[in-house]
Specification:
Number of strands: 10
Number of domains: 2
CATH superfamily of the largest domain: von Willebrand factor, type A domain
CATH topology of the largest domain: Rossmann fold
Strand content: 15-25%
CATH class of the largest domain: Alpha Beta
Radius of gyration: 20 Å
Oligomer: single chain
Distance between the termini: 54 Å
Number of helices: 8
Length: 300
Amino acid sequence: MSMPTVASTPEHILQRIDWKIVRRLDGLLQGDYRSLFYGYGVDFADLREYQPGDDVRYIDWNVTARMAAPYVRKYLEEREIIAWFLLDLSPSVDFGTVAGNQKRTVLIDFVATLARLLTRHGNRVGAIFYDSRVERTIPARGGRLQVLRLIHELMNQPRLSRAPFTDLTPMLEAGLYTFRNRSLVFVISDFISSPGWERTLNLLNRRHEVLAIRLLDPGEVQLPDVGPIIMEDAETGEQLYVDTHDRSFRRKFEQAARQRETALSQAFKRSGVDALPLSTGEDLVGAIVRFAKVRRQRRK
């Protein structure tokens, strides 16, 4: 078996992340990473009356019923964060129409970036790998070596050429059963899945601070006019011959994509979870900064 080239080693990837992503984020966010995630690792401190703009998830409904007015819980943040990555590595994440980039590539860069940001401040990170089933759990630990281990494991995770249609519910259930202490949880997936996962995502969000990171590719939203092609389902291998010259077909494709976007937005809303879209055609730093601004505004 040949050894990986220098350019593909975990050490090289982490160096690239440090220089090209983390340093830019430091400058743009000015160290304010708390705007990215809040509500994690907290202890109950006090109660006060609800004020416009407060996070409705912190309403204490028992006290609200007794006082006939809405009350919210106030928390004190703990020093250490325990963060977990729930990683969907099913065949559909190996799709990509942008040169040199697949959804899996974006996933690895995002995990490396967030793990680096968290561990350098003394926090711990762990991960659960899922392809057609829950494959493995990497216990939460701190330090640079843990980041390198996550990158190494992701690079060496076998890629499935075929799998049953993805069902994200078992992956989310694994998080429910595994995460004992209140944690920061990143669910990273393209969310191409059998329906019903949002209920388990909502249960997970009641116990932890959950962020959904949605992987996507421009080719899943808009079909280029490239003539007759064979389209293949990345999960099942089913093939379909189509003529992309056909404007009517392209319109139907885009309409189906919009309907899928609407359904996903509604699912995240029902779950009470914020979602960050990460496209293979978009700058990772720009996407994270934009998401941080939205989170900061919601927190005010």
